[in-house]
Amino acid sequence: MEAKILNRPPLSGDYEERSFVESGNNTLWVKFLDSEYLEWVGVFSQSEWKSTNLVIPLEDKKLFLVVAGGQGYFVDPDAREISAKTDWDMIEEIVYNPETNSLVATDGLCLAVIEGTSMVWSGNRVSADGISIEKQEGSVVYGKVNDLTDKGCEYSFNIKTKEYICSWECFF
After folding, report:
1. Among 4, 7, 56, 100, which is most exposed with the fewest C-beta within 10 angstroms?
2. What is the sign, positive or negative, of the torsion defined by CA atoms of 61, 46, 105, 56?
3. How far from 143 is each of 46, 108, 131, 149, CA to CA, in Å?
4. Domain stops at, among 53, 85, 117
């Protein structure tokens, strides 16, 4: 199974289309290939908050996470439906961690952990305004938080223990 963001809507009639648009004209088009090698296109509403658009395959499930303008949709390509939506509609960055079979997300202020299709943990605010996720080693995610300097401050976050280590403390 595959999923790919399209740069523009396909010509009408080229693919079966499923509209998941809830409101507005701001949409993201994603082409899916299901387990029977049939192609179809999903149209997703983008939240008005963020510009993040991406697709992440989830290894243990036959699902894809589509993030459209910060809103996450868990899509079953075979059923051609949304299985669930993320609690946050302001996702800035999100990564799949194979060691824990979970997702780590940030809205720019906090970190969160998603297992399956549910957010199981959301931490306190740790950034002035921006969190990057730069790499993973095992169950630990590394990145930088905005600490009101040009360089930012490095952090580590252990997904299993939920331990967050950073030399800077957010005072907001």
Report:
1. 7
2. positive
3. 26, 12, 7, 15
4. 85
Let me know whether 60 and 5 are in one domain: yes
Q: Which of 51, 85, 119 is the last residue of a domain?
A: 85
Instruction: State the total domains in the chain.
Output: 2
Domain residues for 45? 1-85
Of all residues in the chain, the percent with pLDDT exceeding 70 is 99
Q: Which residues contact 125 (CB under 8 A, 6 or more apart)?
A: 109, 110, 170, 172
CA distance readout (Å), 135 to 17, 44, 83, 95? 35, 28, 28, 9
What's the mean pLDDT in 57-74?
A: 91
